[in-house]
Design a protein that fits this description.
Elements lengths: L1 H18 L1 E3 L12 E3 L3 E4 L2 E5 L9 E4 L14 E3 L6 E5 L5 E10 L8 E8 L4 E7 L7 E4 L6 E7 L6 E10 L1 H40 L9
Antiparallel strand pairs: 1-13, 2-5, 3-4, 4-7, 5-6, 7-12, 8-11, 8-13, 9-10, 9-12
């Protein structure tokens, strides 16, 4: 039984890895001139929305550097950032479903050396909150940072230091983790039911053997002729 559970959880783990999705912002327009492109107060990419928290309605609230950036702040791929230093971003799934985030790439908006601390605030489907902090090791290029507690989310807020601004890219997400969780529970439940049925069957067999044995045993006053 233990072996079956181990195999089941291993299969679920592989399934989660296989279902992981990369939100890389390469599907949004990034052909602006003069250094960067602005996107209004929200950006949609790969089924997810990244929205300005404090500057809703601003036409330049979210931006990205372009390949013709004369300052050299382009990371080589489309990375978005809150265009106001005191702004933050919130991530949601476009269809309103749950998701989890396992890692995210981060760089300083000017690709300068930075030890900024970022707070990730996840709101889960049951209304509970989870908070995780990441400190940049070096903001001069995109680096991947794992997130360990951003699970069963309906939204994730990304808060930066007041004196810094960051580019984000390559967000690794697992859509609809509840479906996988339900599958795990189903496998465990099926295993428990099977185990219970096996025990009942074993008990029934034992009872039949005892009845058969008792019927064949001679009584105390019986003797051979």
């Amino acid at each position: 039984m233990k072996g079956r559970f181990s195999l089941a959880f291993a299969a679920i783990s592989l399934g989660l890895q296989a279902s992981a999705q990369l939100v890389d912002f390469e599907d949004i327009a990034n052909n602006g001139k003069g250094g960067f492109t602005t996107y209004g107060d929200s950006v949609d990419s790969r089924g997810y929305r990244f929205e300005s928290i404090y500057y809703g309605g601003k036409p330049d609230a979210i931006a990205s550097w372009t390949a013709d950036d004369p300052f050299g702040y382009d990371t080589g791929s489309t990375a978005i950032f809150a265009n106001y230093f005191d702004d933050s971003l919130i991530m949601t799934k476009l269809d309103g479903g749950m998701f989890e985030v396992s890692s995210i790439d981060i760089a300083d908006v000017y690709l300068g050396s930075s030890n900024a601390t970022i707070a990730f605030v996840g709101i889960r489907f049951d209304g509970s909150k989870t908070i995780e902090y990441v400190t940049l090791s070096d903001g001069s290029s995109l680096e991947s940072y794992p997130l360990l507690t951003m699970t069963f989310l309906i939204s994730m807020e990304i808060f930066e230091d007041n004196d810094s601004s960051l580019q984000i890219d390559n967000v690794v997400v697992v859509p609809e983790p509840a479906a996988w969780f339900g599958l795990v529970l189903g496998l465990v439940g099926a295993g428990l039911r099977r185990r219970s049925a096996d025990k009942k069957s074993e008990g029934y067999r034992t009872q039949r053997v005892l009845m058969f044995t008792n019927s064949r045993m001679p009584s105390a006053d019986s003797s051979r002729p």
